[in-house]
Amino acid sequence: MEVLLAGTIGCLYAGAFYLMLRRSIVKLLLGLGLLGHAANLLIFATSGLIRFAPILNESAPKAPSEVADPVPQALILTAIVISFGVLAFSVVLIKLTAAAAGTDDVDSLRTSER
Amino acid sequence: MLAVTVAFGFVVALLAPWCVRHVGTVWGPRLLAAYPLSVFFLTLATDYEPARVQSAFDWVPRFGLRWSVLVDGWSILFAALISGIGALVVLYGAAYLRHHEHLGRFYLYLIGFMAAMLGVVLASNLLLLFVCWELTSIFSYLLIGFDHEDAKSRKSALQALLTTGVGGLALVVAFVLLRAEFGTWELGEILGRPFEWSNPGLELGTIVLLLAAAFTKSAQFPFHFWLPSAMAAPTPVSAYLHSATMVKAGVFLLARFHPLFHEHWLWQPALLVGGGATMFVGAALALPQRDLKLLLAYSTVSALGTLVFLLGVGNSEAMAACVVFLVAHALYKGGLFFFAGIVDHETGTRDIEELGGLARQWPALATVASVLALSMAGVMPLFGFVAKELAYEAVFHATLPVALAWLVVCSGLQVAVAGFAVGRPLFSRPRATLAIHHAPEWELVVGPALLAGLSVLIGLWPAEGFSHLLAAAATNIAGQSTELKLGVWHGWTPVLALSFGTVLLGVVVFALRPLWCGMAERATGWKFVGPASLYEASVAGLARLAAWQTRTLQTGKLRQYQVLVLSTAVASVLLALALTEGDLLRFGWKAFSPTEGAVIVAMLAGMAITIGTSSRLTAIAGLGVTGYAVGIFFLMFGAPDLAMTQFAIETLTVVLFVLVLYRLPRFESRSTAATRVRDFALATAVGASVGILVLALLADPTPSALAPYFLAQSEPAAHGRNVVNVILVDFRSLDTLGEITVLGLAAVGVGTLMAMWGKYR
Predict the structure, then answer these.
(1) How near does any CA of chain B get to the CA of A35, in Å?
(2) pTM of the model
(3) pLDDT bracket for residue A113 (50, 70, 90)
């Protein structure tokens, strides 16, 4: 499982950055979305891949080491929502930028820095 | 008491503009002169024996920074010079700059500089000394660039700041090394005991850094160029900075550390050679100058060289001679700068070829200036003569014949410079072209007159207390008890013959002025090899390097930024892995079920679709597949809350993407094959390093310290059974509030952008 998960996260990172390095600004956004998933999985990996949810009902195991770590989960929950906020804002911003500049090529969007 | 006085000086400086504005340009400066005057009398009243450390108050106790002063002969002598000449400069400046619109600002800088300078010489705490040292650099920058509308003035100020600033950096490192070795910041404790260095390299490093700091500050060759440039300052400033204060700080520092380092093999040779070179270069460069202030500036360089040279000679007699020459030089050079200022002020020129016959116009001033020049030339019975005799004697007794000859030659050149600076303007034939605006006011003349009077008085009748102070100062810097007897007549000695020879040599050099001017003219083509050009080149080079670096790194292309950031990230991960000891990859091999495998395959397949397709909608769908697969993965590994959130958000994301982006055209293939290969390689490298990172993370057996706490406290403390929920809404509820705020802001941003949408449709 560990090697599989590490490989998957690695692949997701690689794919996300490959997309972000494209010239199309839409691909940049798609890469950003993918990067969010990859980062969440990376944090998730720290919880040790335990199958019991941290919900304390009668059937839950008593020893803390047998229950999934709730802290990374809380972090990821926040991260999912925040990355949605960022993504939503970027999508609209980029759409507007592309419309204003008349192109969706990242390399031609340099007017402000000239 | 003295420590508080230094601190108080900065308060006075801040009050100065107010004082000048409200008390007036006549009485305001006079009131301000009360500060240096009272410091002067305070130093005279201070008992400097035995040497002791007085602590006023802690400034930053955590760093060991305290206002503590080291009271001994050497610091008190310097403090007296700084405050005494400072008082004269304050009064002189009032008459010199009376109608300047920024007189208040001038006094702010001047008194601030004075306080900083007092801090340098009095401080016992090395950090305090460093702070004051840097403050003198900054205040001198402001003073030299006082005529800030003049480009040359600004350039000279920057030159002085950069040169002395580099020295300041060296100084702070030297002080840190001293702290590391001695375990204290207090100079009083460092100097007060015999010491064996634990590491000869450390001692050598400290010495080299101290030399760098002192040589830049005291304008020693090859850093001498900033001092003549600094003549762009108003003349009262030049008189102050270059007679008693700023440039002597380096000499002060070297002498202060002399007892600690004088047995080191590098110390005395470096001072002897560096000082000797400066002494000659300064005097030789002075000869062809036409500008009165430049003449004096180069001769100051030479005098500073002499002081360092005498420290390099190193016997206790040389130390005494150094102290005496220091005071003599401060008196006559301060006075001569005052004289140069008066000439400039009343005639509008400082060119000695255009000046002449001033003695007939201003007999009183001529007398004063002549006394000062004769003291500079070392003519009997003035103080300068006494100092020169002592210096000759010291080098004579140290049996350094080459050094003695060198000193005599340089002193001879100084005699000629004194003649150029005072003799020519006063006594050469009157020029018809010279327009004399008005006679000098008494306030301008009183300063140089006082200094000339002192030069006579000390030469003829040295007061007992005064020579005692000088002897104490010499004892402090020699590190051993030093006798000192001031007196004009030492008998018919070889040294007396040398003194006469010096004056004779000076007269010959004086007569040969056309020769020196011709030589200087021929040498102008060689300026590009000088240290000043090196300075120019390095400043310009630095600017070019910065411009090049900005152009290269900040291209404005997002993708290039990403490449830089990602390569750096990969490199640092690899470096960290390479430097980490132990086996990082000791992870377990938990089994996985076929369902879990299938979910992961779906995740990667979604990603592959997103990357590979040329249709936007398909790409968005692929991203959605990956997102849902991640959600299912969460569900399988004990995170139902995450899974629910993920499903909800992923649905929203896909809807948003489709709504906003579906109308754009298909993807085009824009990058070249080479770029794709590069991006692929870089992305793979990032992925690989993250993968290794995850494996290393999973191999770490340390259990979470937080998890047991939250699991145990969830029910009793927060009355909730779903621990993740409890963390979000209870234990870390403020974080959640912040998150909601971020979402709210994003919503406002999206709304605002949508409102602008109409403009572009």
Answers:
(1) 11
(2) 0.75
(3) very low
